[in-house]
Give the backbone structure.
Amino acid sequence: MNANLYAVIGLGVAVSFILALKGLSAPKTARRGNQIGAIGATVATVVVFFDPGSTKHHNTFLILAAIAFGVIVGVPAARKIQMTQMPQLVALFNGVGGGAAALVAIVEYLNLSAEGTPSKANIVATVFTVIVGCTSFSGSVITFMKLQELMTTRPVVFPGGRFLIAGTLAAVLATGGWTIASGGNTPLLIMGGLSLLFGVLFVLPVGGADVPIVISLLNAFTGLTVAASGYVLQSTLLIVAGTLVGASGTILTRLMADAMGRSLFGTLFGAFTAKPQAATGVTETRSVKSSSPDDVAILLNYAQRVVVVPGFGLAVAQAQHTVRELADLLTAKGVEVAYGIHPVAGRMPGHMNVLLAEANVPYEQLVEMEEINPTFPQTDVVLVVGANDVVNPAAKTTPGCPIYGMPILDVASAGNVIFLKRSMRPGFAGIENELLYDPKTSLLFGDAKESLGKVVSALKNL
Amino acid sequence: MTTMAILTIFVLSIFVGFEVVSKVSTTLHTPLMSGANAIHGIILVGAILVADKATTGLETSLSIIAVVLATINMVGGFVVTDRMLEMFKGKGGKK
């Protein structure tokens, strides 16, 4: 293919990615934006086989088979995944991308050093790609395991952990320096191994509630590794696309951290500041007030205004549709119903909006935290469905607890609070919720979908 | 490509990246992250380039693994993002 034509197509693909990100920033254009990006990526994948720079085609058949295999693995995973498990899938996709970038850099490095000594700039870019790509890969695997609850969601902190992390990072950088100085293959591979270890150690101390921020950050990292490998491969497209993701990912990470009221620094360097938490020796003996579906139905029936606070538990119980049925029933009875959406309800910012959109909840009823908080004093009943951390007053009152400083929904100022919970188990962040013992709180134990179904039928009989 | 040209591209891309997402609403954080995630699947292009000229067994196997991983990242990323956004669209249509 003509070199100029090839370059122009590459430019077009880069522009399609800019348009994709731009489109994804506004609700109306989001889907089209994503499609534009997908088309661009497909075009790039096809034309790279006609790259005028590569004259040797050794493995075309193998490559096509590998792509087919990747599609067979990736598409069904993306199609069949439950929307509740989507954050960990994104984490996993990000991880494999980071791994791919690291492998590309390693292979190009082996290739260049077989032909002679690679330039210093190339070695530096390779070292960067391998360090960050491997860290992103192993870190993403750990975030996946945390979100999938294959391991504890609490921060994993062990004595001397911070020295181990600092030591590993120092060793990574030292082997990086060694690679740059000597240009050998062995130091590069040792460095890759140490980077994998660093990724694990880096994510382990991050608490469950902060995991989304880490996914977003690793996403930005992977973008930068793609840009660096683009430098090694002399590909403008990879540089532009990687940098775009790196830059927008960084901004997005900061926006998320702001939405959660977390300091980015605190999240990232949690490993260096977190102390092993002393187990609270106090056994909880206070009693909670439990309620029946009929009581809840009566309370809701005579309310003027009801706010539903959905959480991840609602999604797990697949109760979105039942919640909507209840809301429709109440609206028909003249009760004002709104949903109070915490920015990080669910597992990621905006996750709850996706889940409720799946159940066709009218968009106008979804109210963001800043707008709904002032209305709680005029609210008669708050129905907390499978949420916990986002209404936990400990975020305001208990300095030092993992969610301290996170803005919460002030449900305590409403007339009545009803928690729908499966058990007294604390939320994802693993913290006890004082609000459960408040006199105006009552609990309806059981599966959220079942409980709501009972409330709906009780309400119909009233 | 000269280093200066690359530096220019890099710095301008950073600004474009900052600019395009600076006004995103919280609602779209998750799809945007997922979409950006799919975009860095473009490393597939790099993986194909290195696989194409790989000669030794080690280079070939590593680069083929890279092609598989990058394909999963790219294709899976775009599909899952589309699924998320499909729901938003359905909601808008029924207004």
